[in-house]
Design brief:
The chain is of the alpha/beta class. It is 40% helix and 16% strand. It folds into two domains: 2-54, no CATH class; 65-228, Alpha/Beta hydrolase fold, catalytic domain (Rossmann fold). It is built from ten helices and eight strands. The strands form two sheets. The chain has a six-stranded mixed beta sheet. It has a two-stranded antiparallel ribbon with strand order 1-2. Helix 6 packs parallel to helix 7 (140-155) and helix 8 (174-187) crosses helix 9 (202-217). It is globular, with a radius of gyration of 20 Å.
Length: 257
């Protein structure tokens, strides 16, 4: 639901950008643009259900990632999240696909195929999905399938979503090594121009890290890469870090610079 709300708010920003009539206040000597406060109404294209789900109060998003790691509660929370099969079944009803639990190069994963089958033009093509979760709570059984099932069904293509290693059990570059191991294995049966890789949030950052790791390891570049809801480097630099938090109703200022 949180992802749906955030997507709706991003759509609202796009749809109402003209309504908002934002004007530049000041441009500082280093090029920093100061934007005055303005109202951002819900998009007229949003459904009543989506509008109802929008936040009504500003919230903090300092959600205690560090404490999750130090308390040792992270593995248990991951296991609990993996048990949310009801939601995944609902996604399958909306986007018909079949899933299979597999292990690729020692990495646990799920293979997702469109229920209607893969058309001739997409045979031999595959996408690697890396789900989000702050490098702490990512889980292929929930977030990964949530991101992979609709894409597999709509694009009519095979997708594998990975359970890469995370904190506190592992540290960098464990996740990149896992992705590279799977990529090497897929290269035995797929041409690099038929492989794509994508992820959201931590999965988006890991996508960028993996591309750099592939270069380091001398692996051929995949045909496509998608970095969503994330920066391409761990500093989370750039202007999106500043504007995306307020439109989600999050009050905590950017700190990862």
């Amino acid at each position: 639901m949180l992802h749906k709300v955030r997507l709706a708010m991003l759509q609202a920003l796009i749809a109402t950008s003209v309504q908002a009539q934002v004007t530049v206040g000041v441009i500082e000597s280093d090029g920093t643009v100061v934007v005055p406060s303005y109202r951002l109404p819900p998009s007229p294209y949003m459904s009543a259900e989506a509008k109802k789900a929008l936040p009504r109060e500003v919230s903090e998003d300092s959600n205690g990632w560090a404490s999750l790691v130090t308390s040792g509660a992270t593995p248990a929370q991951r296991r609990a999240a993996a048990g949310n099969s009801t939601w995944i079944q609902h996604i399958k009803e909306l986007y018909p696909a079949k899933t299979e639990e597999v292990t690729i190069a020692g990495v646990h994963a799920y293979r997702v195929m469109p229920l209607a089958g893969v058309p001739k033009q997409n045979r031999g093509k595959i996408l690697i999905n890396l789900s989000g979760g702050g490098f702490v709570l990512a889980n292929a059984a929930t977030g990964g399938l949530n991101e992979s099932i609709p894409l597999a069904a709509l694009a009519k293509i095979e997708v594998v979503t990975l359970d890469y290693r995370q904190a506190p059990e592992a540290t960098f570059p464990a996740a990149s090594e896992d992705v590279a191991a799977v990529y090497r294995e897929l290269l035995k049966t797929h041409k690099p121009q038929n492989i794509g890789i994508y992820g959201c949030s931590a999965g988006g950052l890991l996508t960028a890290q993996s591309l750099a790791w592939f270069q380091k390891e001398g692996l051929p570049a995949p045909a496509a890469a998608g970095i969503f809801c994330a920066s391409a480097d761990a500093r989370w630099g750039g202007d999106s870090w500043f504007w995306q938090k307020p439109i989600q109703g999050l009050a905590t200022p950017p700190v990862a610079q």
